[in-house]
Amino acid sequence: MKKFNLHIFSLLFFTCAGAFSSAGIVRAENIGVPAECEDVMLQAFYWDSYKMTGTKYGCTMWSYLMKDSVAIRDNFDLVWFPPSANSNGGGVGYYHYKLSDQNSEWGKKDKLTKLIAALHRGGTKVIADIVINHRKDKNWCDFEADNFGTGYGAFQLETKHICRYDECFTSTEAKASSPCYNTALENRGATDTGENDGGARDLDHTNEYVQNWAKAYVRWMIEKMKYDGFRYDMTKGYLGEYLKMYNEEAKPYFSVSEFWDNANAIAEHLAATGYNTLAFDFPLKWDLNSAFSTANANYGKLKGLSSTLRGKGLAKYTVTFIDNHDTFDRDNNCEFAGDDANLDDATIKNKILQANAYILMMPGVPCVFYPHWVKYGDAINALIAVRKLAGIHSESVVSNEDGTSTKKYYSAMIQGHRGNIVLRLGPKRSTTVPEGYHLALDGSEYGSEFAIYVSDNVQAIDEVGVQEKSKKFMKDGNLYIRHGERVYDVTGRVVE
To answer: Which of 159, 347, 379, 455 is most solvent-facing, going by the fewest CB within 10 Å?
Structure first.
């Protein structure tokens, strides 16, 4: 067990809806965008992690995640699940066949609903992966019907709901085997409003029937499946106004859009949604790759970050991350640190923990990647505890940023609801304790080059009326978590 000083005996986790501030309870201004959000998210899967064998970082089928549900909910406010609809043996689930059938490679519907309920009991909210840009079919364009039940409706998508120039109508391959090849234009949908996905049929979101199908689905996922929010897949495939439409229908607590592009394009997308969603900060991910490169690290690149969403003044609408199921090398299982890297390597561990320290101390909503949590859970849980201690949130102000011409360190001060933190990264970081602060977490004890200092005036969030999530406390220099009648260490093991 690693030792560190939080300079506090207990700490309550809480959700953004109950976030404490001097102005009282903070409320969201936009659908799916909690204001001054202190939530931390876990992406609870990686590519092919539904498989029970051959996965490096464990299986994440619903029944396997259930075993970790207490440890997950003791550390995370949001959990992002993979697509949970039937994909007819299609693995991860991004090419679904029937949205109203929630039996998938990840497990049966009853296992899913029990897992969601278990996480809810600990105050953790569950984020569904929403795939509505495209739809898989049995034979190019022969769709399964969806029946969401009373109050939601039944839907049968047809060729007129597929974008006009989809490959099922036009490609050489389709000519030989697609029953809808060269369908008359009047029997097709409108031109695609975004990018095409060549592996499935792109749906025409200008079509009112498609809109009603999507609206019924997202509302059903909230009201019947009991999801709390959405991660929208491939939102470059349709206009942002449709995402806005679907969020207005379902009113999720939290929404994040996968719009894989530069910060200017993502900013335009957010505006098109009416700022009714957050978006993943892909530009920050690439900057982190460069700054923490194992071959040529340059901590100075972390200063300013004008190319990121935070650099555009959009931290409130930002989900920060290091890797996800797409960016993670699917063969070597480690993209962030470079091809052929191994998460067990000490140099790789150092870089990944520095990157996690960065996103977990910065504004935005940080999303931790499951393999990183599996490998380095003790350090990541401790970082989350420090973030919660100071009350760092999605709109926190960053100041006193510094990088050097030698590119060997980075430091910054970040303001939280209950105190401030100083983050220092790199081999040449100062070890002098800033005046008015104390050392909260020394990364060297985890084999990583970072240190975090918390202001001496930090206050425990024990005000009456704040929703309790879990209590953390120090004993003999170690961090423990009390949840209900049980006590866990930072790795999730029961100790009492």
So the answer is: 347
Instruction: Tokens 């949590």: give the residue.
Output: 373
Check: CB of residue 288 under 8 Å from CB of residue 355: yes
pTM of the model: 0.89
Coil/strand/helix, residue 196: coil
Q: What is the mean pLDDT of residues 203-211?
A: 98
Do residues 320 and 366 lie in contact, with contact meaning Cβ atoms separated by under 8 Å? yes
Strands (E), 84-132: 125-130
Can you read off the two tokens belonging to residue 58?
Answer: 């464990």
Local structure of 104: helix, strand or coil: strand
Indicate the burial class of 432 (C-beta count within 10 angstroms; 0-12, 13-18, 19 or more).
Answer: exposed
Question: Which residues, including other chains, have CB under 8 Å from residue 220's CB and lie 6 or more apart?
Answer: 100, 148, 149, 152
**Spatial separation of the C-alpha atoms in residues 255 and 260, rounded to whole Å:** 16
Three-state DSSP at 171 gives: coil
Q: For residue 352, give the nearest of 293, 311, 300 by alpha carbon.
A: 293
Which ranges of 155-233 does DSSP label H, i.e. alpha helix?
A: 167-170, 172-177, 208-223
Q: Confirm if 377 and 492 have CB atoms less than 8 A apart.
A: yes
Query: Burial level of 108, CB count in 10 A (0-12/13-18/19+)?
Result: middle
Q: What DSSP string describes 296-321?
A: S--GGGGSS-TTSTGGGT-GGGEEEE
Q: How confident is the model at residue 480 (pLDDT cuts 50, 70, 90)?
A: low
Cα 242 from Cα 224, distance rounded (Å) = 22
Question: Between β-strands 478-483 and 471-475, what pairing exists: parallel, antiparallel or unpaired?
Answer: antiparallel
Segment 254-311, tens digit of pLDDT:
999 999 999 999 999 999 999 999 999 999 999 998 888 877 888 998 998 889 999 9
Contact assessment for residue 142 and residue 96, using Cβ atoms and an 8 Å cutoff? no
For helices 346-361 and 282-291, the axis angle rounded to 10 degrees is 140
Residue carrying structure tokens 């942002």: 240
193 CB-near residues (< 8 Å, 6+ apart): 205, 206, 238, 239, 242
**Alpha carbons 269 and 414: distance in angstroms, whole number:** 28
pLDDT value for 495: 67
Between strands 78-80 and 41-43, the pairing is parallel
- Asked if 347 and 340 count as a contact pair (C-beta separation under 8 A), the reply is no
Is 349:343 a contact under the CB 8 Å cutoff?
yes
Q: Quote the CA–CA distance of 448 and 360 in Å, as a whole number.
A: 15
Q: Is 334 helix (H, G, I), strand (E, B) or coil?
A: coil
